[in-house]
Amino acid sequence: MATGQINVSVENIFPLIKKFLYSDHEIFLRELISNGTDATLKLKHLTSIGEAKVEYGNPILEVKIDKEGKKLHIIDQGLGMTADEVEKYINQIAFSGAEEFLEKYKDSAKDSGIIGHFGLGFYSAFMVASKVEIITKSYKDEPAAHWICDGSPEFTLEPADKTSRGTEIILHIAEDSLEFLEEFKIKELLNRYNKFMPVPIKFGTRIEKIEQKKGEFVESENKDEIFTEVEVDNIINNPNPAWTKQPTELTDEDYKSFYHELYPMQFEEPLFHIHLNVDYPFNLTGILYFPKLGSDLQIQKDKIQLYQNQVYVTDNVEGIVPEFLTMLKGVIDSPDIPLNVSRSGLQADGAVKKISNYITRKVADKLKSLFTENREDFEQKWNDIKIVLEYGMLSEDKFYEKAGAFVLYPTVDDKYFTLEELKENLKENQTDKDGKLVVLYAGNKEAQHSYIEIAKEKGYEVLLLDSPIISHLIQKIEGDNKELTFVRVDSDHIDNLIKKEETTISKLSDTEKESLKASLETYIPKAYSVQLEALDSNAAPFIITQPEFMRRMKEMSQSGGGGMFGMGNMPEMYNLVVNTNSDLASNILNTEDKTTQEGLVKQALDLAKLSQNLLKGEELTAFVKRSFDLIK
Ligand SMILES: Nc1ncnc2c1ncn2[C@@H]1O[C@H](COP(=O)(O)OP(=O)(O)OP(=O)(O)O)[C@@H](O)[C@H]1O
Questions:
Q1: Rounded distance, CA 359 to CA 306, Å?
Q2: At what angle do helices 13-20 and 95-105 cross, to 10 degrees?
Q3: Rg (CA), the chain
Q4: Ligand 1, closest atom to CA 74?
Q5: Residue 94 Cα to ligand 1 middle (Å)
Q6: Residue at a domain's end among 332, 354, 377
Q7: Which of 98, 321, 344, 467 has an alpha carbon 20 to 30 Å from 145's alpha carbon atom?
Q8: Binding-site annotation: residue ranges for ATP
Q9: Which residues bind ATP (predicted)?
């Protein structure tokens, strides 16, 4: 029997590392299963190139709980180790790796910047075990070895009688980690980290009903006689998940069922998928799904999952996937993403930047092909995907450049235009006297109904732009399309929204106008600025409008990242447009009796407020009472 000192310079490094990585204790299982998987795949490679002259067979990995003995076994059928290799790989490499890890993260281990914690390897076993044994038999014709270490730098190494190839790791679970002897706990971990690992993982057995006389005619109607129960290995993973296959091998149904495999609690179908597959200048595979999003951006539970060679790493893909795409779902698998660097390090990393750009490009290409292949279907999905696309246009210039080809602008009547089509269609009717193309839009079909109707009567198209970030986006579009301006339908009187040459002649003289304005301002609250306009005599006498510029700045400031500083808290600003050519305006002007005059102004103001959804509470009650009195 050999005994020895593990070559570590930090005396009793075990309790230290245990403390540092406290919250991540559970990764030990992922690390040990990864080692077993690596050992199995290495053997596969060696046999395939003729280096190892043994039968590869159908190796599996097994995780076994021995509750009474307080032990957890991780058994693989991989290439195994000779005694010399245990000395080298476990005593020297594994421990020096762990020591290096500790040195590196001593000060920053708790910095949330570290993702994954890969690299701790075999050593992580000591986070949950007070003693660890390795019983291993190499594929080479050498005796098996048995290594034991109780957490101090001393170990023993002796021959063992194991005859089957592979490695068994036995963890004597420490008193403070007994939860790892619970079946549900291990199940949960296997399901989180190992669900798609490339070697089948057995955890216990399960009962399967199989047809007893397959292919034969069975007379009996009794199911028990036809089916027989057999105990089979309970394999917890799918070693060949969809993203490792070629897109040509997969049908739409395969993609959908993989979505549900990935998110078992998700019952909605994804809208469409994007298969990622690149091996130069970096290696990356994956499938992204567009879920139904609508316009409410609730915190999402099912996030994009990041894997490295089918080992789950994290569902925090910030910095790797462009921010606007973090609302998608799916998987990304890449061995080229450095995992033990901080978030800021990730963002500065050239390879990661390339990955992020690649993903943006692939998503844009897919959207373009969906749009050209089946526009009708794309239009139907628009409402569910627009928020991602609009956010992408705002946050990624590369995406913005491509977006012109597929981003849509819907009208209140469910027509969909691209920006170019919009310009073409509106040009004739909606260009104002200064040559600007005025794009009218509504933010809410119900609330702005009367304004929309007035615009439609003029033959104008009204877009329905209702995303929370729309004011930022139209600001950007206007910046890049100087001949274009977006105006919300309720931001001014229709004749002012798109100013044409002809002006209506005012019925009132300038003195009359002044006198009317003075009377109005006596009764109208200061919150409204009175604006006299000589409009068509049939147009509404009073209209409340909300100037586009101020409203947009305020909205942008409220939704963050733009607008004018401090405007988010400004009170709403409204104009009261009074049509001086209306009969009501003349009536107000000519009414001598002040009480009657006040009554007319208040009633008209309330009606105008009503169509802007501004009449509420006490004012609404008073208005209803007053109106009943009028028709008594
Ligand atoms: N189950 C196993 N079968 C065969 N060899 C193993 C097994 N587990 C560990 N080893 C050997 O021990 C070495 C050290 O393992 P350790 O997990 O510490 O580091 P690693 O796997 O090389 O890298 P990482 O730190 O990324 O896990 C491995 O490189 C491998 O050669």
A1: 14
A2: 50
A3: 36
A4: 1
A5: 7
A6: 377
A7: 98
A8: 31, 35, 76, 81, 96-97, 167, 343
A9: 31, 35, 76, 81, 96-97, 167, 343
Residue of 33, 38, 41 with the most ligand 1 atoms within 8 Å of its CB, for mutation: 38
Give the list of residues 6+ apart from residue 17 with CB closer than 8 angstroms, or none: 98, 101, 102, 120, 123, 126, 127
Task: Quote the ligand 1 centre to 121 CA distance (angstroms).
Answer: 6
DSSP letters, 234-279, are EE---SS-GGGS-GGG--HHHHHHHHHHH-TT--SPPSEEEEEEE-
Instruction: Give residue 462's Cα distance to chain centre.
Output: 31
Of 13, 31, 35, the one to substitute when testing ligand 1's pocket (max ligand atoms within 8 A of C-beta) is: 35
Q: Which two tokens stand for residue 142?
A: 């050498």
| Residue at a domain's end among 176, 204, 232 | 204
Ranges under pLDDT 50 in the chain: 10, 108-117, 295
HEC sequence for 552-575: HHHHHHHHCCCCCCCHHHCCCCEE
Same domain as 490, residue 516: no
Is 350 within the bounds of a domain? Answer: yes
pLDDT at 621: 93
Residue 159, classed as helix, strand or coil, is: strand
**Domain co-membership, 66 together with 91:** yes
Q: Which residues line ligand 1 (CB under 6 A)?
A: 31, 35-36, 39, 76, 78-81, 89-90, 93-94, 97, 118-119, 121-123, 167
Say whether pTM exceeds 0.90: no
CATH number of the domain at 430, please: 3.40.50.11260
Per-residue 3-state assignment (H helix, E strand, C coil) for 40-96? HHHHHHHHHCCCCCCCCCCCCEEEEEECCCCEEEEEECCCCCCHHHHHHHHHHHHHH
Do 278 and 373 contact (CB within 8 A), yes or no?
no
- The identity of residue 323, as a single letter, is E
CATH code: domain of residue 269:
3.30.230.80
CATH number of the domain bearing residue 48: 3.30.565.10
Please give the angle made by the CA atoms of 510, 514 and 519, to the nearest 5 degrees: 145
Question: CA-CA-CA-CA torsion for 64, 66, 70, 75, nearest 10 degrees?
Answer: -30
Nearest alpha-carbon partner for 491 in 604, 376, 577: 577
Helices 510-523, 583-590: axis angle to 10 degrees equals 80
- CA distances 36 to 30, 60, 62, 564, Å, are 10, 9, 9, 58
Query: In this structure, is residue 222 part of a structural domain?
Result: no
- Note whether 195 and 271 are same-domain residues: no
- Whose CA is closest to 329, among 362, 306, 351, 308? 306
ipTM of the assembly? 0.97
Q: How many independent structural domains does the chain possess?
A: 4
Q: Does residue 221 sit within a domain? A: no
Distance CA(519)–CA(453), nearest Å, equals 30
**What range defines the domain where residue 86 resides?**
12-204
Would you state the pLDDT for residue 109? 44
Task: Say if residue 362 is in the same domain as residue 415.
Answer: no
